[in-house]
Design brief:
173 residues; Rossmann fold; six-stranded mixed beta sheet; 6 strands; globular
Length: 173
């Protein structure tokens, strides 16, 4: 079933993790604009609203004004200069967040043409854990997975064994 529904391993694993912790009767505020994963969630009966592309480093009003019971942030926090403020502004009691992990063999991603599409943070797992703890969240569950490619070379081989993504389910402490 999942192979037909999910175009990427990351989507499949993210969905399975979310489904494990979040009921479809809850409302979700997904940080970031509507995207292919939003469509997957809606197609699977999740009630999801997205932020509209505002710069969350400066404007957290969509988060503060949301009545959603769950906030999700899938590969968003690495783009923010100040995820601390965003985490503090969340009113919901549940959070599911995923980030790319810092890879020792590859520098942080930076698009040369798109000023938004760059990673200011590529976290080590302990850094994200600490950030969540400092902003009042208790980690309930976590998972890591790799992101292998079919390219040749040392780095592509390392991607088969080195976790690239880190996902956390947390609740207000």
């Amino acid at each position: 079933m999942y192979e037909q529904t999910f175009p990427h391993k990351r989507f499949k694993l993210t969905y399975q993790f979310l489904e494990k912790h979040i009921s479809k009767s809850e409302t979700v505020l997904d940080l970031g604009v509507e995207n292919p994963f939003t469509k997957i969630l809606k197609d699977h009966a999740f009630v999801v609203e997205n932020t509209t592309g505002e710069d969350l480093d400066f404007d957290t009003s969509a988060i503060k004004n949301s009545d959603a019971t769950v906030v999700t942030a899938f590969e968003i926090f690495e783009h923010l200069l100040n995820p601390f403020t965003v985490l503090q502004s969340i009113k919901a009691d549940k959070l599911v967040i995923s980030v790319p992990l810092r890879l020792w063999f590859s520098s942080a991603y930076r698009s040369k043409t798109d000023t938004w599409d760059r990673h200011y943070h590529e976290f080590e797992d302990w850094q994200l854990d600490w950030l969540l703890e400092k902003t009042g969240w208790k980690i309930i569950d976590r998972q890591k997975w790799t992101n292998p490619t079919k390219k040749l070379g040392i780095r592509p081989i390392l991607r088969w064994f080195t976790p690239r993504y880190y996902i956390i389910y947390a609740e207000r402490a």
